[in-house]
Write a structure and sequence with these properties.
alpha+beta, seven-stranded mixed sheet, four-stranded antiparallel sheet, elongated
Length: 414
């Protein structure tokens, strides 16, 4: 009995994925649990396993093509078994008078399935949706995918070509932007390609502005030293790390400024704020960047928050992070302090409205109450926000509130 290989759902918001590479080829034997291909979502790459023993008789979605989650991307069957290579829900019949299209049955032992005889047009699910939305006749398009399958790129190329024929001079400018959008991430693969697309889309769709400010850590350092002296519980003392305290300060500030704890999705849900704080912690990996999510961070104590940050960042680096912890953050923190960076301009993790960048500690010479020169520590902070939604004044107030919590660290313990 044949078994479909389905596009997995890697996160709560994932709706489709891209097949990066087929590790196995059509006609090759596979074992259940063996990796047959790699796929990419918006934030994650993963390897897809064979659902059963058998032969990879058909690759439905070619490398570089997209498919909706839970849609079949390949078929595994037993040797000698025949399968129906036509899939009614993914094809569009081309009308031909007084002629009936017959189903094709292909033995699994064959190295490749039979090529379409021209009576049906293969189209990916995403291509069919785009064609319907744009009122495009699929019979007019030549597919470039496997078995002449029509892909999303074919729809976009056809639309661009048709527009160019009737466009005015001003329309040509907009058309060139559309072409540039199609080439996002060209020449890259895997996670790097996904990151390239997301970063370019973020800059194209938002009005990003970054403001900077430093927080005096004198009181924070004093509090941490006092806790170490008076508490034997090293775990509690460890929860007062700078990363944890900055995260707690951000959470408290977000509760006071809910407009910063928000998403902007102009094509779907518009602008929406959240009561819950799902905090994203940008984590550097060997081959890119991931933002694991701490869900319901507003309900956690400092100790619980410390454990959660350690757990999700470690899982991200080990590649064992659960799918539901990859997406859904409402605000993100990114830290370049270990790299010696003071200020920088972090790019929004869309659809979020804001992201906070944390720099490296800076020494500052100042006078104490006795007129003596002393050295204090300051923490540089960089807040990027979408100026379409948030003006400079409220953004500055939000950043100031974060600084206030850091400079009065006892408030973080409440």
């Amino acid at each position: 009995m044949s078994t479909e290989i389905l596009m997995p759902k890697l996160g709560l918001t994932m709706t489709s994925g891209v097949v990066d590479e087929w590790i196995k080829k059509e006609g090759e034997p596979v074992q259940k649990g063996e990796h047959v291909c790699t796929i990419s979502s918006e934030k994650l790459t993963a390897e897809v396993e064979a659902p059963a023993d058998g032969i990879l008789v058909k690759i439905i979605v070619a490398e570089g093509e997209e498919a909706d989650v839970k849609e079949p991307i390949g078929i595994v069957a037993q040797e000698g078994e025949t399968i129906d290579t036509q899939q009614p829900e993914e094809t569009v019949s081309k009308p031909k008078q007084n002629q009936r299209v017959q189903e094709q049955l292909v033995p699994v032992s064959a190295e490749k399935p039979l090529v379409s005889n021209g009576e049906r047009i293969f189209a990916s699910p995403l291509a069919r949706i785009l064609a319907k939305e744009k009122n495009i006749d699929l019979t007019l398009i030549k597919g470039t995918g496997g078995n002449n399958r029509i892909t999303k790129r074919d729809i976009e190329a056809y639309e661009h070509s048709a527009t160019r024929e009737v466009a005015s001079t001003t329309d040509v400018v907009a058309s060139s932007k559309s072409t540039a959008s199609q080439n996002m991430g060209a020449g890259l693969t895997g996670m790097r390609k996904v990151i390239a697309k997301r970063m370019k889309t973020s800059l194209d769709q938002t009005a990003q502005l970054t403001i900077h400010r430093k927080a005096d850590l004198t009181a924070f350092i004093k509090l941490k030293e006092e806790i170490k002296r008076h508490l034997s519980d090293t775990e509690i003392a460890g929860s007062l790390s700078l990363t944890v305290c900055v995260s707690k300060a951000v959470i408290l500030a977000l509760k006071e400024y809910p407009e910063m704890n928000s998403w902007y999705e102009p094509d779907t849900n518009g602008f929406q704020t959240f009561d819950e704080v799902h905090l994203g912690i940008a984590t550097a990996l060997s081959d890119g960047l991931m933002v694991p999510v701490i869900r319901n961070a507003h309900q956690m104590s400092l100790k619980e928050l410390s454990g959660a940050i350690t757990k999700v960042t470690q899982a991200a680096r080990e590649g064992s992070l659960a799918g539901e912890l990859v997406t859904g953050s409402t605000f993100t923190i990114t830290n370049l302090g270990k790299s010696g960076i003071e200020y920088f301009t972090p790019i929004l993790n869309t659809p979020e409205t804001g992201i906070l960048g944390v720099g490296s500690l800076q020494d500052k010479l100042t006078l104490n109450n006795d007129g003596q020169v002393i050295t204090t520590k300051e923490l540089p902070l960089s807040l990027t926000f979408d100026h379409q939604l948030i003006d400079g004044a409220p953004a500055a107030e939000f950043l100031g509130r974060i600084v206030s919590f850091i400079e009065k660290p006892y408030s973080l313990l409440l």
